[in-house]
Amino acid sequence: MQIVPMQASHWPQVRAIYQTAMQHGGATFETEPPADWLAFASGRLETGRLVAVEGARVLGWTALTPYSSRSVYRGVAELSIYLAADAQGQGLGSRLMEALVLASEAEGFWTLLAGIFPDNVASCRLHERHGFRKVGVRERMGRHPLSGRWLDVLLYERRSLLTGR
């Protein structure tokens, strides 16, 4: 298994992993992935767009989204991390997170943010293992489009020990 920069050729498999997460309702309020690679890539930073691949198969992916367009926040980004259902529970999330943190720090990011549904215990644990701390809860942040339930969003952040000091 290798972790490499995400390319347009990975998009169909990245989209499928994202779509599966949306259908299960535990990871995002989104209901449809972006229509195509350009729509996906235009909303995310090139830094941190990574895929874990085994042969030609994408097992998981990460991406960073700018927190704000204001220059004062240039070192702050929100992360996304998604794994194929059959690739979960095997340490892949940790390998992807390590690669994402290294890539972000190499580009001068000092804070990574994550919003996680409380039911997504595995994601909370993954983030905590990699230096994220829970800094708050946004209560009843949104109504999930599939279940109709109001969901809280746990706010996590990771401050770099290398950049932004």
Descriptive report:
There is one protein chain. This protein has helices at 11-24, 37-42, 92-106, 121-129; strands at residues 2-5, 50-54, 57-66, 76-83, 111-116, 133-143, 150-159. The protein has 165 residues and is α+β, with helices and mostly antiparallel strands. It has one domain (2-159): Gcn5-related N-acetyltransferase (GNAT) (Aminopeptidase). A seven-stranded mixed beta sheet has the order 1-2-3-4-5-7-6. 27% of the residues are buried. Keywords: Acyltransferase, Transferase.
- Secondary structure: helix percent: 25-40%
CATH topology: Aminopeptidase
Tally of DSSP β-strands: 7
CATH superfamily: Gcn5-related N-acetyltransferase (GNAT)
What is the architecture at the second tier of CATH?
A: 3-Layer(aba) Sandwich
List keywords for this structure.
165 residues; alpha+beta; Aminopeptidase; 27% helix
Briefly summarize what is shown.
With 165 residues, the protein is an alpha+beta fold. It has 4 helices and 7 strands. The chain has a single domain, classed as Aminopeptidase (3-Layer(aba) Sandwich), CATH 3.40.630.30.
